[in-house]
Amino acid sequence: MLSFVTLLAYDYKYAFDAIRSYYDIADEIILGYDHMHKSWSGNYFEFPVFKIKDELDKIDTKKKMRRFTENFHAHGSPIENDTFERNELSKKCKPGNWIVQIDADERIIYPGHTKHAIEHTDPQFCVQAVWCSVYKTFGTKALIIEPVNECQPIATKLQGQYTAARRTNQPPADFTIPLLHYSWGRTADELRQKLTNWSHSQETNVDEAMKVWESVTLDNYQELRDFHPGVPQTWHQLKLVEMKV
After folding, report:
1. How is the chain split into domains, by residue range?
2. Domain 2-181 CATH class label
3. CA-to-CA dists, residue 52 to 3, 81, 90, 195, angstroms
4. Distance CA 136, CA 78 (A)
5. What phi, psi does 52 have (nearest 5°)?
6. Residue whose C-alpha is closest to residue 69's, from 9, 23, 4
7. Which residues pair with 3 in a beta bridge?
8. Cystine design at 35: which of 15, 46, 69, 152 (Cβ 3.0–4.6 Å)?
């Protein structure tokens, strides 16, 4: 059985589509948000609780969701806060279930395949996803990272044993689940907010990253090479695609 976990924060608007992408295959859904509406970096963000609840209630036709709020911002560095929140929410999941952490800006592309693959994995392994990452959007067109090679652990049966964000000490299974990832595919204000508040905020030169992002157009994107702000070769180039509306 699958317990899905999604964290709600400054980019809560993205979470609704994330939840819709996995709702049908979830046995339960655990949602968490900071009780003071502070990010892992300690900054306040807008979080209209009742408006969010109304939207979640529209999605939750089968009453799968449970929401939890506590202090997720005061346990060390941003990455330590990230890890703490994931551990605490994993403890709310039904024992014995697979704990599948899907972030607000991620979408499961093949729900049926994902469910089957996770449930048939040896529990000594974790399940990894490979990100199809959107870097920038222009209407219905999007620039995505090419090649697709970034992997991220998303599923484990270990409660409360995350060591760094979604990572545990388990080896990965020998397959990956594809995820559509709206990594940097946001408005300029939303992207700056993310880079200032995410778990890597202390390692990110926000102004430099934004300068590069803002400079990219449909006319010059092919010139960009090896431009990941942390490990340059991770993002080798960009590919233009037409997004489904």
Report:
1. 2-181
2. alpha beta
3. 21, 23, 22, 23
4. 25
5. -65, -45
6. 9
7. 28, 99
8. 69
| Residue found by looking up tokens 């036709």 in the block | 61
Rounded Cα–Cα distance for residues 16 and 54 (Å):
11
What string of pLDDT tens digits covers the 245 residues of the chain? 999 999 999 999 999 999 999 999 999 999 999 999 999 999 999 999 999 999 999 999 999 999 999 999 999 999 999 999 999 999 999 999 999 999 999 999 999 999 999 999 999 999 999 999 999 999 999 999 999 999 999 999 999 999 999 999 999 999 999 999 999 999 999 999 999 987 776 777 999 999 999 999 999 999 999 999 989 999 999 999 998 75
Query: Can you tell me the distance from the alpha carbon of 27 to that of 100, in angstroms, rounded to the nearest whole number?
Result: 11
CA angle 185, 190, 193 (to 5 degrees): 125
Beta strand 237-242 pairing with 150-156: unpaired
Instruction: Indicate the residue type of 109.
Output: I
Amino acid identity for residue 135 in this structure: Y
Q: What is the pTM of this model?
A: 0.94
Distance CA 160, CA 91 (A): 6
Q: 18: which 2 tokens? A: 């994330």
Contact 100, 154 (CB under 8 A): yes
The answer to whether the beta carbons of residues 180 and 107 sit under 8 Å apart is: yes
